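dude i think i finally got it to work??
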Amino acid sequence: MTDGADPIEGRPGAAGAVMAIDEAAMVADLQALIRIPSITGSEERVSVWAADALRALGLAVEVLQPDLAAHRQDPAWPGEEMARTSLPVVIGRLRLGVAPGAVAPDGERPRRIILSGHLDVVPPGDPATWSADPWGAEIRDGALYGRGACDMKGGVASILAAVRALRASGDLERLDGELLVVLVPSEEDGGQGTLAAIRAGATADLAVITEPTDLEVVVAHAGAITFRLTVPGRAAHASQRREGVSALDNLFTLATALAANETSRNEAETDPLMTGLGLPYPTIIGIVNGGEWASTVLDRVVADGRYGVRLGQSPAAAADELRACIGEACAADPFLRDHPATVEITGGQFGSARVASDHPLPVGLADVAEAVLGARPALIGEPYGADMQMFVNHGDTPCVMFGPGDVRVAHSADERVPLQQVEDCARVLATWLSRELGPG
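look at this
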């Protein structure tokens, strides 16, 4: 814990907030979150819990329930992987040092900060591969285990702990401006929840998403689209297989072309934030279906996969690249030239995003993290898609990611988050809010 000195010189109250982190309440919040299964598409129960938690912290809470049919018509709608009947978005709001509806002296709205996290998680997979109950929230060796512990309920618990600490220390009343806590569904399949929040006015001067970054500051991330290839062949009896054309062989031809395309796309990247990742824009085929009879040459194979969206590229532009790659491969093959494979873009579509490394948001957050934790976080890029791109690209809101946990254990068996990192993240957030919304 802190020694009581103010980590940000000249900022009253920051040390008090750091000292006021309620570890027991933080752990209880995280355990409660884990014990509510909230697989993407089924976030109703966890959104009720989140709304109650924010109200208990003194925030004015609004739960949005956008019309799904209308929402899907939004030009920025990012697709979806999972069926759903509702899209509950929880927004907690604190107006600090200003009366409701007040404007700043220059006529602009008060300075606004967003802290955001997603409440949905991926399915747990085979329980036999876990050493702990995926929904049990077991604590072992300083880490809390469970589906979503890392991605990203640990980060949500950090947000709640930071706000609780500011209130307990009395620092909240000394701040000026507006704080929005935006807790959303549907991040895992594209970001419908954050888009709905943005359309409802959840934009700000600065935003931090507490995704698992190992307490580094993510200033850039790639994106991804999901696709489906339908690959034709020509059926024949197995004993006369040379009379047929195997759709599986044709899929191999296209997979080879995709592998070469992956290499060229990654070799063409020059931004150090992405080149340092080694493979910032991966392509995979994750599902293959085909065949009806073991002794018949396959006449159709359907393959689903993921294609990376390059930094600065839109999902639509990435889809054009993918189609061009498949088109060229088909044109070079004697059978596929006349019977080309088809490409469909399915599921979630994550854009890429970047905030300049010298922007006040990452610089200021890194300054605070260094002061509070004793080590300066790196400013990094990541190869995965996230809601950061929604705030940057569609909300005109500078946004970075900073949170507890190692993304390498996200979506895995025995997913976990170190509790010390959850607390450290809360300490940094509380101090950063004191700096950004403090008087003077």
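The chain has two domains: 14-221+352-436, 223-350.
im so relieved honestly
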